[in-house]
Amino acid sequence: MTSQTAPDNDAGNAIVTKDAEAISLLLMQYFDGLFYCDSTRLREVLHPSALYATVIENKLRQLTMEEYWPIVDARVAPALRGEARHVFPAPATAF
């Protein structure tokens, strides 16, 4: 029987912290893309084969990213409308 030692907690915490920081930066880039209606920013964080799904008038609408980008680019950005920035989505948003 071989003995195993527990990983160094400081090293494990450093990895978790680094991962959390990377995720946080990606999320901020995602929210920036939405706030500024910038598909270039969104393309950097969303997988090309991701699917945009939403409900409009009680009907499910699903779009590929190639179908979604022109919609993003055509919107008037909340930033340009002078709206306050909200980092977190609405309560009805599903992840």
Task: Provide structural commentary.
The chain has 95 residues and is an alpha+beta fold. It has a domain at 14-74. The chain is built from three helices and two strands; from the N terminus they run ααββα. The chain has a two-stranded antiparallel sheet. The longest helix is centred in the N-terminal third of the chain and has 27 residues, at 9-35. The N and C termini lie far apart (44 Å). The model has no long low-confidence stretch (mean pLDDT 84).
- What helical percentage do the residues reach? 40-55%
Q: For the CA atoms, what is the radius of gyration?
A: 19 Å
Instruction: Identify low-pLDDT runs.
Output: none
The helix-and-strand class reads alpha+beta
Give the averaged pLDDT, no decimals. Answer: 84
Shape: globular
For the sheet with most strands, the description reads:
2 strands, antiparallel
SSE order, as H and E? HHEEH
Strand content: 5-15%
> Reading side by side through the largest sheet, how are the strands ordered?
1-2
Give the end-to-end Cα distance, rounded to a whole number of Å.
Answer: 44 Å
- Total beta strands: 2
Q: Give the number of helices.
A: 3
